[in-house]
Amino acid sequence: MAGHSKWANIKRQKAVVDAKRGNIFTQLSRAIIVAARNGVPDPAGNFQLRTAIDKAKAAGIPNDNIERAIAKGAGTFNDNSILEEIRYEGYGPGGVAILIEALTDNRNRTAADLRVAFSKNGGNLGETGCVSWMFSQKGVCTVEDVIDEEQLLEASLEGDAESYEMIEEETAEVFTEVVNLEKLSQTLKETGFNVIDVELRWIPGNHVEVTYPDQAKSLLKLIDTLEGLDDVQNVTANFDMAENLMTLSVINH
To answer: CATH fold of 84-133+205-252, please?
Structure first.
């Protein structure tokens, strides 16, 4: 399994991810703003917005905050901040390629924060285009309670998925083209699967094997630090790593 998925999963199991990220409200609210801005400000006709609202509700964000975020995206609520979507690229320890998606109202602040995070954790922020050529964007549905893999395969094919991967016992990630994500999500749900997450994700075309414990620890600390920044929405990296090394690094940092 690709290292980043496996690592995210280990963190999820240990309930580390959202408990220590007080910025989760900011990130989810911003995702709603951008989704409302990019399409119609009505969840019924905007799949990206519907997904962002579902995630916000699951994280316990109050309805008032959700409505305000939709209004900001629609331009009917003005707080004088203009959010830009920017992609940053860099290298982590061991030459691992890292892609960062950010939403910011101050690109100088964001770039400075990222530069500090990289330099403190053995990496460096690179130029635009330095690593993005290694990644392609896909739609991903995460499915839980998968008892019958044959059934998952059939439903995935029916929903025009490209592939799926079991990331742990009874949990799978199903991949598709970006434009097909809504259809895939709907098909999986209609065939009785428990879809717990729907997202667009950058998937690396190649992987760098990380084998040294110190390097592993620095890399995961770097990704954790990047994910903890208010302006950062998503972080993707092309590492692969033995599960025991990964678990050890998560516990120790």
So the answer is: Alpha-Beta Plaits (3.30.70)
pLDDT tens per residue, range 192-232: 999 988 888 888 998 899 999 899 899 989 998 998 888 88
| CATH superfamily to which 135-204 belongs | YebC, transcriptional regulation domain (3.30.70.980)
pTM for the whole structure: 0.78
Q: What is the pLDDT of residues 147-179, one digit of tens each?
A: 999 999 999 999 999 999 998 888 999 999 999
Q: Where are the domains of the chain?
A: 84-133+205-252, 135-204
5 touches 167 (CB < 8 A) = yes
